[in-house]
Amino acid sequence: MGAPRQPCRRTIPDVLAYLGAIRLLLGAQAVYRGVTMESALTRLTRQALLPSDLTVAQAKCGIRRATRRLSRTRWFHDGCLVRAIALSVLIADRPGVLIHIGFSGGNPGDGEPRALGHAWVSCRGVIVSDERGADVGHAYFEAKQLVVHRLP
């Protein structure tokens, strides 16, 4: 199991993480409209006014809060890919941030085999986006990795 979830606070960096997460989650929705992940990441990492020097915990809290808020709307489509893109961009000012895309076989119970996809984020080899921690890396066959870093 991953590390226990830390409570979100209301400090200035936490509020900045929340506001940045809202903008990034909305921008990451472009992947559902046919924009490639690479293009979406390039555009999002160039955005001005992104908070820097956030801890991973602050970034995760911002993503959780923003996802909860945006999920109340009809037009926001929540998913692990959108959350992974937003989290990776929030913490991309440190080295070693990767988005992983993986698949596993699954049988939802109706007899039809399906491939299940998942996206997660690691920083310096440690999975940071998923509560399951290292277990997620073993549950899915990794098909793609994308390096994420802030662009000037």
Low-confidence stretches: none
Form type: globular
Assign the structural class, choosing from mainly alpha, mainly beta, alpha/beta, alpha+beta, or little secondary structure: alpha+beta
Kindly state the percentage of residues in helix. Answer: 25-40%
Mind telling me the C-alpha Rg? 15 Å
Quote the beta fraction: 15-25%
Question: From N to C, what is the helix and strand string?
Answer: HHHHEEEHE
Q: What gap, in angstroms, lies between the N and C termini?
A: 37 Å
Order of adjacent strands in the largest pleated sheet: 3-2-1-4
Find the count of extended strands (DSSP E, 2+ residues). 4
Q: What's the structural domain tally? A: 1
Mean pLDDT score: 85
The biggest sheet amounts to: 4 strands, antiparallel
Annotation field: number of helices: 5
Question: Which short descriptors sum up this protein?
Answer:
152 residues, alpha+beta, four-stranded antiparallel sheet, 5 helices, 4 strands, globular
Short account of what is shown:
Helices cover 38% and strands 20% of the residues. By secondary structure, the chain is an alpha+beta fold.
Give a structural overview.
There is one protein chain. This protein has 152 residues and is an alpha+beta fold. The protein has one domain (12-148). 38% of the residues lie in helices and 20% in strands. It is built from five helices and four strands. It has helices at 12-28, 37-45, 56-70, 80-90, 135-139, and strands at residues 97-106, 114-123, 126-127, 141-148. A four-stranded antiparallel beta sheet has the order 3-2-1-4. α1 (12-28) packs across α3, α1 (12-28) packs across α4 and α3 packs across α4. The longest helix is centred in the N-terminal third of the chain and has 17 residues, at 12-28.
